[in-house]
Here is the input.
Amino acid sequence: MKQQAFLEKINPVKDKIYRLALRLLISKEAAEDATQEIIFKLWARKDKLKDYTNVEAFAMTTTKNYCLDELKAKKNNNLRIIHQNYENNSRSLQRELEVKDELYWIDRIVNDLPKQQKIVFQLRDIEQLEFDEILEITKMKPTAIRVALSRARKKIRESLTNKHNYGHKRS
Amino acid sequence: MDIKEVRELLEKYDAGETTLNQESALREYFQHNEVPNDLKSYQLIFAFSEKSREQGMEREMQLPDSATGNRYLWTAIAASIILVIGLFIFQNKPMEMNNNDLGTIQDKEEALQKSMEALKMVSELMNEGKEDLIYLKEFNNTKDKFIKTE
Here is the structure.
């Protein structure tokens, strides 16, 4: 496969890769590095890529596995790295999207979800993928996906409701 | 879609049982309609997921340049071919015995004379060189002071 053809195939997926990486790694820099790394991986396997009917699912699976590995490595090395970058990311996210305070708040809630719920929510509610695709990417059972999704949605709403009821103070 | 229908769908949404079509219908509804307070949190979630989808990577994506890789590969191949050919040419030359280098002296007497001269010169030089080695005895002298062999 030529570079041009590869780019055409990968470009629509690139931002999805980035968003999932960002969701899991939290830090913008780490997510960008990861995206670059994953695209290299896909490029190295470009000849096999032709055989996959669903390049997107394959790319997302690679992303999920890569980021989970990264997290594992980071946990062993230094937890502080993640935390420090949190601030960076939140500021840039606000600037980037010009989101209202509320949306930024949800972003933090989603980031605090357990990993599986986070991944499922990201793939379903944000990327709007079919259950079949999520199944392929996460290798989870259909019921497990629905349960994780349901929990994530309820948890987010619960956090939002609590915040409004108790008038949470923010700096 | 009326509010009753929306509530029904939201219930399924909470259970993770809505289809993509139903979810986009909900998204659409919340985008364009004012909703009662108890549904505000849903509105925020749908707005959030919609907004998050617009986020993209700012950094330019790079691919390894395959052309440079190949160029280095070919340079390496060319260099090794030249090296091999060079070694082959220069290594083989001294190996070939040239007939002109042998038997330049035809007369036997003269040949003997010349050989003797050459050997004598070699042995003379050899002896000359050996004289310098006499200092090496000093080592033995010193060594014998410490190591008694008998």
Q: What stands out?
A: Residues 79-85, 167-171 of chain A have pLDDT under 50 and may be disordered. Chain A is about 85% helix and 0% strand. Chain A has two domains: 1-98, 103-171. Chain A touches chain B at residues 3, 6-7, 14-15, 18-19, 22, 31-32, 35-36, 39-40, 43, 93, 96-97, 99, 102-103, 106-107, 110, 125-128, 130, 145-150, 153-154, 156-157, 160-161, 164 (CB under 8 Å).
